[in-house]
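INFO batch 0412 | record 1 of 1 | parsing
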Amino acid sequence: MPATAFLLRPPSEGSEGRAIREDVGALQLLPSPLRPAVPADQRVFQWRGTRTAPLHTIDHPLILLLALNASHASLRDSTLSSYGAGLRKYHLFCDIFSIREEDRLPASFELLHSFCLWAVAEPSECDTVFAGDIPFEPVSVRSASKYLDAVRAWHLAQGWPPPLTDDHRERINWSLRGLENMQAQRRTRPPRPPVTLHMLGALKSSLDLNDPFEACIWAIASCAFWGLLRFGEATVRSRAAFTPSLHLCREHAFFGKDLDGQDYARLDLPSAKTARPGEVQHVFLVAQDSLCPLEALRNLAAVVPARGRDPLFSWRDSRGDVRPMVRDTALQFINTVFEARGLGSTFGHSFCIGGASFYLSQKVDPEVVRIMGRWKSLAYQVYIRAFEQVASRHVAHLASNYSF
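INFO prediction complete | emitting C-alpha cells
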C-alpha cells in the first residue's frame, strides 16, 4: 500500500507559530505513455525514458534477443515487485519537482541525491520553513537505499550504465545519516510483534479443521511458527501468481523418521529469498504435541486432496477447484481471529519472529535456530522480541552460585 502523504501549511492564528499538518492521502503519478499501468514487478522493464540507450552488444537479432532474455531473468519476482515500488516513488518525486522526462533517464547524481533527501524527510510542525505546496511521503533510510537500488536496476534494464559511483553513494549515505539522526525521535516505530505460543493455540481453537480453507490456514500458521517459515514462502501474492517451479507444491513435502525413530517432515523450497538461483532450501518440522505441524499437514492432505504439482498450502472453493492460499487473505483472516480475542494484529514475519523467539527462550542453541531459519549470519537476532519476558531464565540468581 502507498504511504500517506502530508503537507505543511503556514501557521494560522491560534496555532502558536506551528505549521499545520494536512494529510493528503497517497500521492498519485501523473499519467504518461512512458509509464503504462502495469504490475509493480514489470515496471523496471516496461517503464521507459525518452532517450535511446547505446548498444552493449553487436547489432544482431539473435544476440539482442539473448541480451533481452538475460536482462529479464536477472532479478527475482519479489525483488522486481519491491523495485517497482521504488521506481514509482522516484517518478512521484520527479512529477512533484517538475523534472523533465529526458532528465529522468539517465539520472544525474544531483537528481538522485535530491530524491533521497525528499523521500526520507519528515519535517515536524515546528519546521515552518518547509510549509508550502510540496507534499512529503516519508520512508525510512533503509527504504530510500532500496529505492536507489531500484533506480539503478531500471537504468541497467533500459541499457544505461549505473547512475551512481561509490563516491556518490557515500555522499548520499552521509546526508541520509544526518536526516536519520535529526528525525530519530519522530521516526521510531515499534518492532513487529511476534506470534506467541498462546496466540498459536488461540488460533487453532478458533478453527474448524474439517473446513478446507481453515485447515489450510492452520497448516500455514503451524508450519510458519515451528519451521521458521516466512509467510511469503507458504503463500502467494495472488491466485494467478502460483508457479510450481517457484512455490511449494504437494510433491515438495516429505515425511520420515530420524535416527531416534521420531517423526519429522521436510519441505523443499524450490525458491527462497535467502537462496541462490536454483538452490533448494529445506524446512524441517518435528512433532509438537497439540500444536503439531506434522498433524496439520496430514490433516490438510486429508481435507484437501490434491495432485503433486498443486500448491502445498491450498484449499478447495465451492466449485471444488484447488486454490493456493493468498498471503493477504490469510493474514486478514488470522488477524480477525486475533483481534476478536484481544490479541492485536500480526504481520507476515510475525510467525517466524515468534518461532525464533520461542526457541531461543527455551534455550535452544542459537546455531540450531540459525540453521532452522536458514540465516547465513546472526541476522536471526533481529527476530528476538520481548527479551525481558525471558531474561530471568538465562541470567537470574547467578550470584547464588557464589554464596551471595
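INFO post-check: Residues 77-96 form the longest helix (20 residues).
INFO record closed
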